[in-house]
Each structure stands twice: as C-alpha cells, then as structure tokens.
Specification:
The complex is a heterodimer of chains A (181) and B (471). Chain A is mostly helical. Helices cover 74% and strands 2% of the residues of chain A. Helix content of chain B is 24%, strand content 41%. In chain B, α4 runs antiparallel to α6. In chain B, a hairpin with a 2-residue loop joins β15 and β16. Classes of the chains: A mainly alpha (181), B alpha+beta (471). At the A-B interface, α1, α2, α3, α4 and β1 of A face α1, β1, α2 and β3 of B.
Chain lengths: 181, 471
C-alpha cells in the first residue's frame, strides 16, 4: 500500500516513470478483472484504458485513502457495471450474450490474451446474472470483504453474501457440467 | 468434480497475459495524454493575483494556518547549524532585494488523510512584512497578512467570509518573522551542504546545493533541502524541501519556485483588506500543536467583535426570491418569497436574520455532509432562527470548523445532484436505499441518512443528511 502511495505522490508531481510503474504493476490485474466482469474483450480493454486515462486526467483532484490497487479496481468495477447497464438498455440483455469469438476475430491487435482455462471460466461467469458475477469476482479475485461489496453494489451485506453464494454455486455447477461434457 | 474452494482458486489463479506490443501501444497513448495534462497544468496553476472571491464555499481558517505552519516547518528546519558561510554573494543579492514574490506548493502525504496539496503565493518586503495568498485553482481563498509593523497575524477566509486577527505570543511571533525567506535562505547557506553541480531550471542555468538534517518539527524524520541559484543573477530560483519519515516514506514535499526578486511592493499590499461584511472569528493557538490554529465558534457564547450590521434594500424580486443588497453595496442576499409578504417585510426579515446570525441566536437543525472516497469533503449546517413575526426559518452555511477543503465541485458536484435526485425518486417510490446512523454534532444527537453513490469517474461519494433525533 505504501508503494502505491509513493507512486501516486510521484505521479502527481509529474512523474512519468511513476505512472509507467503504476501501469506495469496493475495493468494485468485490471484487465483480468474487466474481462471477468464483462467477458467481452473490446469493452474490457476500453474500460481499463479509460480508467488509466481518467487517472491521468484527474491526478490533480485524486486523493488516495486506501490501496491504489483497490482504487483502480473499484474504478474498473464501476465502469464495467455502467457498461453492463448501458448494454442492457440498448439490447435488453447483458454484454455476456455478445458474440465473444466474433468480437475477438474482429480485432487483431488484441490486448488481453486469455489462457484456455480463463476463457472457460469467463464463459461460465458470463452465464451468471451480472450482480452475482460481480459479487463472485470481487470476492474471489480481489478478496474484497462482503461489506465492501455491499457498499459497491449499494445493497445490504446479506444481499451481497447471498449473491456471492448463489453465484458461486451456479458457477461450480456450470464448470462441473462442462467438465462432464 | 470441482468444489467451491476449487472454483475460488480457479478464479484467483486462472492465467491471463497481455500482449506486449499492445501494452506498449496503450502506454504510449496514455503517456501522450499525460504529457498533455502536464502542458496544461501551468495554465491551471496560474493564479489571478489580487482577485477577491466573494463566493460562499468555505475554506477554513485552519487551512490558512496550515499554510503558515507549513512554511514555518520548512523555514524552521533551516535554522541552527553553524558552519562556514559560502555563496556570500547570493546572500548579499537576496539582502539587496527590496521585495520578492514566489510560489509555494506543498504536498502532505498522510495515512489518515491521504494527500493534501496547498498552493500559495508569497509576497515579502524587507520593509513591510509578508503576505500569503492561498489558492484553490484560480481563486484566492485565504489570505494571511503578517505586517512587520503590526506584530499580529490576520487571516482572511474569503469562502466563509470570516477573518481572524491575533497578536501572537513571542515564540510564534518569532516564527512568523521567519516567514521571510531571506532569513531562511541565509540560514540555509550557513549550514553544511553538498554541491549538486549545475542544471537547467525552467530553462535557466542554475547551480545547486543540498543539505540533510533531522527534522526539528517531526520526530524521527529527516529533512532534505535543495537550493538552486541562477548562475546569471546569483539569486535563488528553486527551493525543494522533502521531509522523509523513519520508514523512508516521504511525508511532506515543499517546492518554492517562480521567484521574482527585486520587486517593489507597496505597503498597502501588507495591510489586511477585509470586506465590511466579513465576520471576525475568535482564534486559539495551541502552543503544542500549531496546526490546530483554527477559529472557535461556540453558538452559546459566540463573540462577534467588530461585526457590522447591514442596512438592506430590495434590489428586485425574481424567480421566487427577494434579491437584497446592502446599502453600501458590499453584500447581497436572496430570501425565498415564502419568508416575507412584501419587499418591506423581506428587508425587515433580512435585517433581523443578520442580527440573529451575528448574535449566534440560533439552533442547529440539520446537517448535510459529503464524503469523497471516505474523506469528509464538506459539511453544511442548517440553523433555525426564530423571528419576531413568529416565523421560524432555516438558513445555513458551510461549517467553518471543518478543515477539509471542498473538492467536489463543478461537473462532479452536478453529477452528484443528479444522482441524488434519481435516488430520492426511487425512495419516494418505496425503495429504501439509505442507511442510517446516529451521531452527535455540536452536542446534539442527529440521525443521519446516508446515501452512497459512485460517480462516472469512479469516485465514491457518501451523501448524508442529519436531522435532530428528537424532531
């Protein structure tokens, strides 16, 4: 956490090297978070890019009160949630239903390179309702506490716990049925 | 068959890589954006000197004090070491300068409060004293006057429209005198130092020295100071002071730059310029903690010394408000039309309200707070005033005791207002989306309704409105 603070401090003083270090240090974690939440690579990549760009633009106003990774991850999660809502409004469904393979074929300059394992996991995650998927990812991937997840989703803690439990059960079931096939 | 634990492990450990070329391409794009923000920064930082802001948002007198204290910390650390005096020409050049102006930027990095940045312009005159103007973006929010002739310090807070004035105890007075950077630089040059050689500072060839010493104001902290002097003028062009804690972490970084030497400043620059409608606040200085220098506002025993009651007149009635102006043209006010039956009544209400405010004859009724990423950003206090015509009206202002500067402004503030409106609509439709908590404010228990929001840039906001528990 302290290194994050020092990086932020140097970054705010105009430290290009500090920004590069922040980017190198957190880029992959944020990409993995975004692709897990959205499955759709283009949007996930755009979101991570936009989070870093916003971080640069708002450097003057930025105040770090927790960990830098936590802050950036929250930004990604928030933007992913907004992207999901926007998609739902436009299409009446979630981005998880978008033709994933087609979108990846359409962009040769792919940023995210998924292992087969992650691809299978993402495909299963995509079948969860977004709130459950988010609860599972925030908890299992980022290690967020249920209180933080509840705060992030603006729901009571019990709801967050319930979403996590239901999502994890469903995910396990999906992965097991896929293994049987 | 996978267990839940297996699935959790899979989520944690499933591998993902990123394409190195794409990584570099994205980084290049981001660094371009970074460079653009750096190019724009000087324009943003450019202060509009002498501008008096009469807007309502608050900046604390305590914040003003922090500016002073920060300077004092920086300056005090320069004092003390005996040693060979070098660069004597620099000292003479400094002493020959009748006046000077420089920019002071300070960054505090603290676990409990996060990073705090303070921007100040400092004006100094060997003859007249020192003045600090604290900025929030382009607006002068706080001014501190320390005229040599006076022996008192006056802090003017343009956001809360208040000011404080205090004859300082001897030791503090000595510190205020050390606000003169000439003294500090003289001490700097008398310490043992390391030569840093030459480099270009803002395009000017400069020569630097560096000194290290234990911090006198922070236990277990080390201070590293660099002084850069322009080769052609022999005058300081850049001073940087880093305070580093025992764990090696930077605690405070101070930059003094944009120096202008040999400036003729007028005596009037150092005379406190206090608009007539500003309220005088009492100020306490805790000898053990100078950063606690702040106004004390006690609604039961508030002393208002030198405060002036305005004579009001109606300017116009527009948009369901009476727009009033003081007869001297120095103050304005808006009264909801529901508070008065006629323009004459509005004037009477305003004059009575003015008096009740200055007497502190009021009762705290509601409190609204905004937290930005977990940090209290602003607090607005609503007071009830009982008027002689039987009305009880509510009027408010930002909490003058809150040291946090308001950062949620402009588009982000508007976005919060929009989200708040939407949330209220949802609540009116029966959805209970707010949490509650009880807390004391000014000795009374308030029940706060807390609503959480996330702005589009990822900023987490908590908006709380507190009402008296017994209401």
């Amino acid at each position: 956490m302290l290194e994050g603070r020092l990086l932020v401090w140097k970054f705010k003083r105009g430290g290009k090297d500090a920004f590069c270090r922040i980017y190198e240090k957190y880029r992959n974690d944020l990409l993995r978070l975004a692709i897990s939440l959205l499955s759709e690579s283009d949007t996930a990549e755009d979101i991570v890019h936009d989070v870093f760009a916003s971080f640069i633009r708002n450097a003057g106003q930025f105040r770090l009160t927790g960990s830098l990774k936590g802050y950036l991850a929250t930004c990604v999660a928030n933007r992913a949630r907004n992207a999901n809502r926007a998609y739902c409004r436009r299409h009446g469904s979630g981005p998880d239903e978008a033709p994933l393979a087609a979108s990846e074929r359409g962009r040769p300059d792919r940023w995210i390179i998924r292992s087969d394992e992650l691809r299978r996991l993402n495909n299963a995650l995509a079948k969860l309702p977004y709130d459950q998927r988010e609860a599972v990812i925030l908890r299992a991937q980022l290690g967020m506490k249920f209180g933080q997840i509840a705060k992030s989703q603006n729901v009571p803690i019990k709801t967050a716990q319930s979403r996590y439990r239901l999502g994890l059960d469903k995910l396990r079931s999906l992965l097991n049925s896929e293994a049987i096939k | 068959m996978r267990s839940s634990e297996d699935v959790q492990k899979l989520i944690r450990n499933a591998e993902m890589h990123s394409d190195p070329e794409a990584n570099q391409a994205v980084l290049t794009d981001l660094l371009d954006q970074f460079d653009k923000t750096q190019e724009q920064e000087p324009a943003v930082m450019q202060p509009s000197i002498g501008r008096t802001i009469m807007k309502s948002p608050i900046t604390k007198l305590a914040a003003a004090a922090v500016i002073v204290i920060a300077v004092l910390i920086g300056m005090n650390q320069l004092v003390g070491s005996a040693g060979s005096v070098a660069w004597g020409e620099v000292v003479r050049n400094i002493e020959a300068s009748p006046g000077f102006v420089f920019r002071l930027r300070q960054t505090y990095i603290r676990e409990e409060t996060g990073t705090i940045e303070l921007n100040t312009m400092v004006y100094g005159s060997a003859q007249y004293g020192v003045r600090h103007d604290g900025y929030n973006d382009e607006d002068v929010t706080v001014q501190i006057y320390a005229p040599l002739s006076d022996g008192a310090m006056t802090a003017v807070d343009h956001r809360s429209r208040t000011y404080s004035r205090r004859a300082l105890p001897d030791d503090a007075r000595a510190e205020i005198e050390s606000m003169d950077p000439k003294e500090a630089l003289r001490e700097f040059l008398s310490a043992e130092y390391t030569k840093l050689g030459r480099k270009a500072v803002e395009g000017v060839e400069a020569e630097g020295i560096e000194i290290h010493r234990p911090s006198e104001s922070r236990a277990n902290s080390q201070v590293v100071m660099q002084l850069w002097v322009a080769v052609d003028t022999g005058l300081p062009i850049l001073v940087e002071v880093d305070t580093v804690g025992k764990n090696g972490m930077l605690e405070v970084h101070t930059v003094q730059d944009d120096f202008r030497w040999n400036v003729e400043l007028d005596a009037s620059e150092f005379e406190p310029d206090i608009p007539e409608d500003y309220t005088l606040m009492e100020v306490e200085i805790d000898a053990d903690d100078r950063t606690s220098f702040k106004p004390t506002v006690n609604s039961d025993s508030q002393k208002v010394v030198g405060a002036k009651l305005h004579k009001w007149r109606l300017e116009e009635k527009r948009d369901k408000y009476y727009h009033l102006e003081s007869e001297d043209g120095q103050a304005g006010a808006m009264l909801p039309e529901s508070w008065a039956d006629s323009p004459e009544h509005a004037v009477r209400v305003m004059e009575e309200l003015d008096l009740l405010k200055q007497q502190g004859n009021r009762e705290l009724a509601r409190v609204s707070e905004i937290e930005v990423t977990g940090q209290l950003d602003s607090r607005y206090l609503f007071y009830k005033y009982a008027l002689s015509d039987g009305q009880v009206i509510e009027d408010g202002g930002f909490d003058p005791d809150l040291t946090n500067p308001r950062t949620l402004v402009g588009e982000r503030r508007e976005e919060l207002s929009q989200l708040l409106g939407e949330r209220r609509k949802q609540e009116e439709e029966g959805q209970e989306l707010a949490a509650t908590e009880e807390r004391q404010v000014q000795g009374r228990v308030f029940t706060f309704k807390k609503r959480r929001f996330v702005l589009s840039d990822g900023t987490e906001i908590v908006y709380s409105i507190g009402r008296l528990k017994d209401d």
